[in-house]
User: Fold this.
Amino acid sequence: MVHPPLPNDVVVMPGTDVEGEWERFHIFEALHNRMRICNPMTSADVDAVADVLDPQPGHEVLDIACGHGELLIRLAERVAIRGVGVDLSPWVLVRAHDEAARRTLLGSLEWWLGNAHDLPVVPPRDIVTCLGASWIWHGFAGTARSLVSRTAPGGRIAVGDLRLRDGADVDAVFAQHGRVSTKAEQEAVLAETNVTPLLAFDAPPESWIDYQNRILDSVESYEEANPGPEAATFREEEARWRLDHERDQEFMAWTVWIGETQP
Assistant:
């Protein structure tokens, strides 16, 4: 496996096995290398989320599992924020770092490599986001609580996660896949953590189809640039992901909640 150098100004969090993470996330590089947005959201959707987050000059912003950094970069293009993007994949941080250098930013950004679970809760930030990495805190509830604990009173959070599709058979889904929260349960979690919802964005089915096609485009591009048995293995992984996504769409949807924390 050949990988690019990690930029010198990427902050490596204590205890991070850098070489191990290059290897661990190599598959995701193959599946996402052609994307700027590594989830089922369109460019317009990301702008809509940024609108509701409403960053102001001087705001401190923390984007957990930032991927290629598109949300954080767009916030920094709008106003002079001070932002930190955290991810455990060195592959995506190289792309985020390089993309930020190509764009015209009003704000300043840092990129941290490490497990977001180990991030301290102080200092609190004005905006904290995590779109699509609820596994870090074992589900929506843990993710929401962790984001709130790192957000200043009156600040805003955005959390994106899978949920049970309206009308799905809860018992049947549980028997096959375990507990999947409903939209109402996610809203209740926000209420319990003193978050006032400002927007609940539901990704439409066509967004999932586009996401799957972007994965296929990425893996084909990777295979063309890196022919060999490893690329063939990644192609098999893409086929498995596609089948999993098609199955999951029958009973699961993806929602981004944006809310304001209360004192």
About this structure: The chain has a mean pLDDT of 93. The CA atoms of residues 145 and 193 lie 7 Å apart. The two ends are 49 Å apart (CA to CA). The longest strand covers residues 151-164.
